[in-house]
Specification:
11 strands, seven-stranded mixed β-sheet, about 25% strand, two-stranded antiparallel sheet
């Protein structure tokens, strides 16, 4: 998978897995990653699917309707890529925190849904429920931040609440930030994610 790896100053800090939104690239979330954890190593990945020339992490059939089989395939693809990247760059595979926006948040959520111990935690900006009707792995000890918009037309509040409940039901610790805007990632939401990250990880490094 096309990606960027930037070695951080603190090898004990979580490695940040950055996952862009539809039409983004591996460059998009670099400023957000640096803001959330300035000393972390960063692995920023570009989605392997193209929708009318726009990179994505998995196919969709329509707005808000995922191609479930492709989602499962691409989730396994990203999981395998992480294993290889950890070997290639020499980082701790058990110390990865995903930061995803929109489509990137959805593939990060799918990693959590499919693989036990896949991520130490996740920052999910405007995610949806990746798949329904499946049993989740044990997420006890996983720290998850969800950024949501009260007026998000793509991801309405009930979608966020459903995801929240599913993750909590699997044992994850979930904190949700509610903004008054739509689907865009605001400065206030990014700052809330950074404060959450420092609270949960700065003393655990």
């Amino acid at each position: 998978m096309k990606h960027i790896f930037i070695k951080g100053k603190n090898e004990e800090a979580p490695v940040l897995l950055l996952l862009h939104g539809t039409g983004g690239t591996e460059q998009d979330l670099l400023p957000l990653g640096s803001m959330i954890s300035p000393e972390s190593s960063i692995l920023s990945v570009r989605g392997n699917v193209s929708e009318n020339g726009m990179p994505r992490f998995f196919r969709r059939l329509a707005e808000g309707i995922f191609d479930k089989e492709d989602l499962k395939f691409r989730t396994k693809e990203l999981h395998d890529f992480l294993d290889h990247a950890a070997e290639q760059y020499g980082f701790n595979r058990n110390n990865v925190v995903a930061i995803g926006y929109s489509n990137g948040a959805n593939i990060a959520g799918s990693l959590l849904f499919h693989f036990e111990g896949e991520l130490r935690g996740a920052v999910l900006h405007h995610p949806m429920v990746p798949l329904r009707g499946m049993g989740l792995p044990d997420l006890k000890g996983s720290e998850i931040f969800i950024g949501a918009g009260k007026n998000d037309p793509i991801c309405p509040p009930q979608e966020t609440e459903e995801l929240e409940n599913l993750l909590r039901g699997a044992g994850a610790n979930v904190e949700t930030y509610w903004g008054n805007y739509g689907h865009q990632l605001t400065q206030q939401e990014a700052e809330a994610a950074a404060a959450w990250f420092q609270q949960h990880y700065s003393s655990k490094n």
